[in-house]
Amino acid sequence: MMVYRSAVIGCGKIGSGFADDPKVKSIYTHAGAYTSCPDTILVGVCSRDPGKAERCGRRWNVPGRYTDARTLLVEQQPEIVSICTPDETHHELIGAALEFPSVRAILTEKPLAVDLTEGEDLVRRTKERGVVLAVDYSRRYSDRIQTLKDLIAGGDIGAIQAVHGYYTGGVLHNGTHWFDLARFLIGEMSRVQGIGGRGKSSPDPTPDARLEFRDGARGYLHGCDAGAYNIFEMDIVGTLGRAEIRNFGHTVILSRVHDNPYYSGYRALVQEERWEDGMRDVLLHAVEDLVRCLREGGEPRCTGHDGVEALRMGIAVRDSAATGRPVRLGGS
Hints:
With about 325 residues, the protein is an alpha/beta fold. It has two domains: about 5-135, 3-Layer(aba) Sandwich (Rossmann fold), CATH 3.40.50.720; about 140-275 and about 310-330, Dihydrodipicolinate Reductase, domain 2 (2-Layer Sandwich). The protein is about 30% helix and about 30% strand. It has helices spanning about 30-35, 50-60, 70-75, 90-100, 115-130, 145-155, 175-185, 280-295, 305-325, and strands at about 5-10, 40-45, 65, 80-85, 105-110, 130-135, 160-165, 190-200, 205-215, 220-225, 230-240, 240-245, 250-260, 265-275, 325-330. The strands form two sheets. Strands 14-13-12-11-7-10-9-8-15 form a nine-stranded mixed sheet. A six-stranded parallel sheet has the order 3-2-1-4-5-6, sandwiched between helices.
């Protein structure tokens, strides 16, 4: 069976560096995923920083070490390419990969682009070329989060009443992670209202947001100070239970309705399950999912369209915070 030649463009933490962190216990880098997957072989790595490219190449025993992405693509002819570079470079580099006939699948870090027109352009061009485009909104590749989605869809926690969350690090860079997860678990949003925002002068501020979902649920997302610490949490309250996603997705807590343990005649939420492996091997799963698409057809767990919709929500919140006016969303 075919083993796919793979390349990583961008040798920072998510490209390679997290694998050297003793606290990271699972496969959490693109280079590590291609090396661990039996259906892929890592043939080239690239960074504008020669030292990073050299260290990454040595770390994964890859002789193809480059400082120019096009040179890598010409010389190595990979079938799968990961884009792990700064947000503003994604459109250019995905576009460059699409120029090479060998490339059959692209896995890009989030956000897909920093401009909605650029994101839509990439979706159109990949479809025209017949290239699989996947976006690493990593919680979609978590087995635990997939189980949680199935439970919510099956009515396990009842009708969704409220959604609450916290994030740091920019409404496009990290906020779109939260929006994509909310869309994945709950459904489309119909209206957003951005409020305030840390770093207002930045092209990627961190505002709060009021959220309305098409099914009637409402929510609030708090933008917090990344200078104090990082946070990513989501709290989904239903009529029959509650799901809490904590510690960036590593921890998932499920509570369901029982007789109140403290007062007779009342009902309360009681914790029943706690999972601590929510982010295990998510990037390996993303690579395995790409291989499935190439061999069997079908779409990846997180498509280019999903990336565009997350970007649409992030831009809507950012613009709403700037103007003070709510934005209606008509995403499909």
